[in-house]
Design a protein that fits this description.
The protein is α+β, with helices and mostly antiparallel strands and about 650 residues long. The protein is about 50% helix and about 10% strand.
């Protein structure tokens, strides 16, 4: 007795080592056949790359890139082109899933063939050596005799799905071609219009070192790679922001799902191995449309040289897609940035804690950044990191406001002296000039320079939208935020910013949808529950507003929202209680929030008193004066006009 595996129009015969499609043999190399057989024997489950390598190659060492080449070969052999009928699904960074409904059949008394009759004649697959030459091809009559004999014994089901025959390819899109050790393929077939932008997602580096303490390095390399590729050629290449891709760090998402989530055509997978004085980084480029493997390369570095990784990959990208770089871009790619190895290590630790963003983590981040520039005083990015950490600490009250801001300003100014073309430093300077100095011209100059240096940076676009808010140019801010979301679609904070502006524009349904999307992405993101609560208030749903606001995690926004919502419910006593607690706990740094409460409660004298205090203390909230819907009751008051004039803002 011999088993056959049926799926759709295909029959896989292990004894004769032959694949048939509608009674016609399909050429496969021997190893490709072995891979397909293992997949067919294990349908509808995640098969890890290591499991597949061990099953097919045993203890023989095989690079991952070879496996992905075989998978690509199989997809072509199975005409596995339609995303809707994918047979071999890539599970990002994990492995594969064979999604067909496989029917197990038995065939009696089938004559055995010589193993050399595997259909390899004339087959040549890039990257795969032809392992066995066929002595002769199977004839159609032989194929027919096999197909008439099976007796169905059992079905290996595919839960909740049906076999769907693959559709014919509708159009050929961008195709990238491997050249040596290069990371991209040149345009072939129908190239996109010059205005069409290629979108790429750099997935988080997998830490395969076996040392959990190396997570900070893996995360840091992810961010560095995104930054470098994002600045490569922004007119033609868009790179998804860090916030959106980090959500895939520990998941088992299908590659096609990632493509839909992020609206990308290509994905760069990365892994980090090694320890001590040797690190190996593996980079693989995948095309989402057909989940094909386009290129893979291993890079070996000493830890102190790892910073050159993104330069090496970016140079390959620039060369192979033949984009025209400005002289400055070419100089940036050629420029080596030698950094003390220990300083680089400390900087990566600082970035890791800065991204976690809790009070304790910000303390750790500041400490590591200080350690980095003590080891290398010319390390401009370390000074930017320290400035960011101190700015957040000062704004949240974990360090004295004036002292924290002074040190933050000094750090970013030092960074600009060390590297005048550092976009992160210009962006942070623009934030300072807008939120602290109310130097609108200076803020505009700094943010424009940051956008010029890094036009695909969603964080920079978000800051530029904030400046448009300050001037009351809300439609311009919406456009900037939509650009930022296209680059960072899973960034909850940016969606929250968009929701707030939509609410100010009176588009409450759109605002509600964006706030809910932000909460879906990050349920604990500060101020989002309060923002959604204010949308409910605008819709006349005061009780729903209070319930939503009480979910707010950040104390100052929860108390502010409660004071406003209780007032709307005509529960003045509870509103007073919340307001008094807000004043007791947060008056030294959040006078603007208190002014907003008084304005919403139609107590203009108290509102202007706290606005004046916010002005004297350079409360960062003052930059949001024209954006604040809670101040609308003040807009007919001459004191409001005078306040705008004092801020040098348009009326």
């Amino acid at each position: 007795m011999s088993h056959l595996y049926r799926f759709g129009p295909y029959v896989l015969d292990p004894q004769r080592r032959t694949l048939y499609c509608d009674e016609s043999p399909v050429p496969l190399t021997p190893k490709a056949f072995d891979v397909l057989l293992f997949l067919a024997q294990n349908p509808n489950r995640l098969i890890t790359k290591d499991e597949l390598l061990k099953a097919v190659w045993g203890d023989t060492f095989v690079e991952e890139g070879n496996l992905t080449q075989y998978i690509s070969h199989l997809r072509k052999a199975l005409t596995d082109n339609s995303e809707d009928s994918r047979l071999i699904v890539t599970i990002s960074r994990k492995g594969y899933q064979f999604t067909a409904d496989v029917v197990l059949s038995k065939v009696a008394d089938i004559p055995k063939r010589d193993a050399a009759q595997v259909l390899t004649s004339g087959v040549s697959t890039p990257g795969i050596a032809v392992e066995t030459k066929a002595k002769k091809e199977n004839s159609p009559s032989e194929a027919q005799s096999v197909l008439e004999l099976p007796k169905i014994n059992a079905v290996i089901p595919r839960p909740g799905s049906r076999w769907r025959i693959g559709a014919v390819l509708s159009a050929v899109a961008v195709v990238l071609v491997v050249a040596g050790d290069i990371s991209w393929r040149r345009y072939r077939a129908v190239s996109p219009p010059r205005s069409e932008k290629i979108m790429l997602a750099v997935l988080p580096f997998q830490n395969l070192t076996g040392d959990p303490k190396q997570e900070y390095l893996a995360d840091g390399l992810t961010e560095e790679m995104i930054a470098q590729l994002g600045r490569l050629h922004p007119e033609q290449l868009g790179v998804i922001g860090r916030t959106s891709v980090m959500g895939y760090k520990h998941g088992n998402q299908r590659l096609d799902q990632i493509g839909r989530d992020l609206s990308v055509q290509y994905v760069l997978e990365n892994s980090l191995r090694g320890s001590g004085d040797h690190l190996r980084v593996t980079v693989q480029l995948l095309q989402v449309k057909d989940q094909s493997h386009l290129w893979a390369q291993d890079y070996d570095y000493r830890p102190r040289d790892i910073l050159n990784l993104e330069d090496d990959v970016a140079k390959a990208v620039a060369r192979e897609i033949q984009i025209r770089l400005t002289p400055q871009q070419q100089a940036d790619l050629k420029r080596l940035r030698p950094v003390n190895a220990e300083a680089f290590d400390a900087y990566m630790e600082g970035r890791f804690f800065l991204d976690r963003d809790s009070a304790g983590d910000l303390n750790s981040a500041a400490s590591y950044f200080e350690q980095a520039f003590q080891l290398d005083s010319s390390y401009a990015l370390a000074w930017v990191g320290l400035s960011r950490a101190l700015f957040r600490q000062a704004d949240r009250g974990s360090v004295p406001l004036k002292e924290g801001r002074r040190r933050s300003r000094e750090a970013v100014e030092r960074a600009l002296v060390l590297d005048p073309n550092l976009p992160e430093a210009h962006a942070l300077t623009g934030q300072f000039k807008r939120e602290v100095d109310w130097d609108w011209t200076g803020a505009n100059t700094s943010l424009q320079r940051a956008v010029e240096l890094d036009p695909e940076n969603s964080a920079v676009l978000n800051l530029a939208a904030g400046l448009a808010d300050s001037f009351g140019r809300f439609e311009e801010a919406v456009e900037l935020l939509r650009r930022a979301i296209a680059l960072d679609p899973l960034n909850a904070a940016i969606r929250g910013s968009l929701a707030e502006i939509c609410s100010v524009l009176g588009r409450q349904e759109e605002a509600e949808a964006e706030f809910k999307k932000a909460l879906e992405l990050d349920p604990d993101l500060p101020s989002i529950h309060e923002g959604l609560g204010f949308v409910y208030l605008a819709q006349g749903r005061a009780q729903d507003a209070l319930a939503e606001i009480e979910r707010e995690q950040m104390g100052m926004w929860r108390l502010q929202g409660q004071a406003v919502a209780y007032c709307a419910l005509r529960r003045k006593k509870e509103s007073d209680t919340a307001l008094n607690e807000l004043i007791a706990k947060y008056q030294s740094q959040n006078a603007f929030l208190i002014a907003e409460v008084y304005a919403s409660r139609k107590e203009p004298d108290q509102a202007f008193k706290w606005l004046d205090r916010a002005y004297v203390e350079h409360d960062s909230g003052v930059a949001e004066t024209k954006l604040s819907s809670l101040l609308k009751n003040l807009r007919g008051d001459p004191r409001y006009t005078a306040f705008l004039k004092k801020l040098r803002l348009p009326l």
